[in-house]
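Many introductory courses stop at the sequence. We go one step further.
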Amino acid sequence: MDDYTRVARVIEYLEARHTEQPDLATLAQVVELSPAHFHRLFVQWAGVTPKDFLQCLTLEHARSLLRRGESVLDTALQTGLSGPGRLHDLCVSLEAASPGEMKNGGQGWTIVYGVAMTPFGRCVLAESPRGLCVLSFIDPEPEAQVIEEMKREWPQARWQRDDRMAESWVARIFVSGEKANAGTSLRVFVRGTPFQVRVWQALLRIPAGTLTTYGELAAKVGNPTASRAVGSAVGANPLSYLIPCHRVIRGTGVIGEYRWGHLRKRALIAQESARR
């Protein structure tokens, strides 16, 4: 069992018994670890103790992140939506496919893709000539299904598998602290409608450790009555983690669903909050 699977199992256990407040020894038993090993797991994976991490999973904590996000997102969006966003010390710039590129379906392109392990489970990554175009966690969907759906986006392209390429991308993306390479830029390439692209650009402005709501995000992209359309655009995000759609939750503070599983969404939010 990998570290993320253990973390997800703990979150699932807590959801089912949220009124019981189980102690750390009980949670360690859930994932078949000694209390000492359980403690080391969370310090290594989340950068904090299990007790501190569990505090980041509460509804009250999610609401505090929403309050923090209200002013932070306003400030972040003052620079506009077209510039790069930031992921830790990576500078993420987003480019959108032109109508001609979408019509050609990737004809003449070679898109290299692969499967690699991340701190949040296995994922598929793909790199087009224009930039990284897919980062999709594999479960709860089977690997073959994820790859098939990915290839339908650019049906005329030549697809080449290279898992080492995917591993190198994971090493570059999922870094923190002293390992991070400050100022490194990363270009992502997306296929979407103008509205979807605008929403994805806004998502890049939500800093780690803060959250926003679908209604707030709709207002920030200039259409305050379009919460449902914003939700659809958030759900269609092709680049999990890099375009941080997990930082959008319900106005009540409830985390809500996620294309790659609600347990993963809770783990992402809690880890980012714990590491601030």
